[in-house]
Amino acid sequence: MNRFAWPDPPSQTAFPIARPGYPFIGAAVFVTMVFAIVGMKILALIALLACAAICLFFRDPDRVVPVVESAVVSPADGRVLSVDRITDTRFFGGPCIKISVFMSVFNVHVNRVPVSGEVDQVVYHPGTFFSANLDKAAASNEHNAVKVSTPQGDTIWFVQIAGLIARRIISGLQAGHQVTQGQRFGMICFGSRLDLYLPEQYRIEARVGQKVKAGETIMGYSIP
Fold this sequence. Notes:
This protein is α+β, with helices and mostly antiparallel strands. 17% of the residues lie in helices and 34% in strands.
């Protein structure tokens, strides 16, 4: 029988909303009310639809994580853009595997920790805002990189990358934090990408074009 675990306490609402969305939703509700009060029905309807769209974007559904020894789960919802073995990276000192996941505006944008362990380093880099599905986005765009050491002694990196529309990266992780696989750690507002760097000996399950879910989809396994 498959085993699953709750990385975070289940929400007490039927439609959980990520906290960073509250100001956007509040502003949209206020504008809708103003249009409705002054009798501008068409604009009020448009504002109401915009409010619904913002609520949908900031949805934060609960997730259960598969309890599978040595597994690495996806840190983001979206579509796998690429799976590459690379040698030139600022994150690993040698060859590694890089998996890129693209998040469109229709995906859940709450990010989750791919493995349990300790945060060794968090590196934020301001930058440009190229479309997140372009190769140059990884190096040029604003990004936030997190290094985690696993109990098995492996090191992985996961990097939040801002996109063409995204203008805000949110992360609650700092060096020294103990993290649990599948727990929420942040999000990127309005379309983005997340890159996952794994040691080259890992067995990879992710495939280009595959749709993945943060905390649920297994991307690969460490090899003893």
